[in-house]
Model the fold of this input.
Amino acid sequence: MSESRIPEADLQAYVDGRLAEPRRAEVEAELGAQSDLAEQVAAYRAHKEALRAAFQPVLEEPTPVRLLDATRSQRPRSWAMAAAVVWAVLGGVAGWAVSEAYRPTQQAARVEVPLPQRAAIAHAVYAPEVRHPVEVGADQEAHLVAWLSKRLGAPLRAPKLESVGYRLMGGRLLPGESGPVAHFMYQCEKGTRVTLYVRTEGPDHGETAFRYADEGNVRVFYWVDRKIGYALSSADISRERLYGVATAVYQQLNP
Amino acid sequence: MTDRDQVVALIPRLRRYARALVGDPGGADDLVQDTLERALGKFHLWKPGTDLRAWLFAVMHNVYVNQLRRRRESAAFDEETMEIPVRAAQDGALAARDLQRGLERLPAEQLEVLLLVVLEDMSYQEVATALGVPIGTVMSRLSRARDKLRLAMEGTTLSGRLQVIK
Done:
């Protein structure tokens, strides 16, 4: 009995006020004769209003600085300095450059390789280690750093994080997708650990600003700077606290 | 108004859409940031004089689809799904939580269409262009999205799948 003669597309267009006369009037008349359909249209309109009302406040929020930064330049380097510390691109290893001849022609892929996932896995595997958390301890820091720098082919540094409550335990060499990875571990007084995963990125990777990822129960801040990818992971501390540590890493690497 | 000013002026709208699409504010802004970076890298592909908003939303759609694909690949082991009964909305009141829950039920491709139509007030043709699908697909997704949202909000016996991320 109540077979609808209103095509679905017309019904939607009616809801959205996009139906031209005389079709609009015809649909309206049809709805007058079919209360269930009229109810449906009323519900659609109510949801539409509710959706608009629910997300309207977002339009009035101030635009986050990192988003403004993202519109500034294709070469993050130029705005990184001006953008001060907070959302700046994080700098890492000074004076190290990939040979221009090695630059491939493909487009920049950014951080599409799963740096945070890799780092989170390494964190989950090594951070809970009681007896062998690191391969080379902090008592041999100079050796550790020289060794890892040599293997990665880039001059690394192990940031000192005492100012944010973390002490270097040591580090280890890990296998990465495309080569060796340096892994530094830090511990606070309460025993919580953060790890810094450092790897070289392909020459087609641009620099990126601070990014955040939840990888299971591991939180990761990561960034790419001057062909080096960094990921700081923790399973124990809050995003805000980890952000504080990541900022300290950045400042350490960019004195 | 420079190109950059135009882009900056559209950020609030990109954020609103992303917030409704993604749910959590941090993740939504990450999506916007990725979109802006991608858009800037490919800005030469935008033809001056054409609709910048439509172009940016098209870029965001591509970024979002890629994110979903990667997330599905990497998170397959961490997710479990369970059936939950749908609670009836009281007196037809549209509680924000019910709305949010309703949105979470929608498949991404239906949600995108609904949000572009409702929040951005795009024409169906504009939506079709932004998402790169035929207009007929836009109409059927819109219709299904609205149906599903209505069912979810009205507490029918249809139960949805809630993804719990451990």
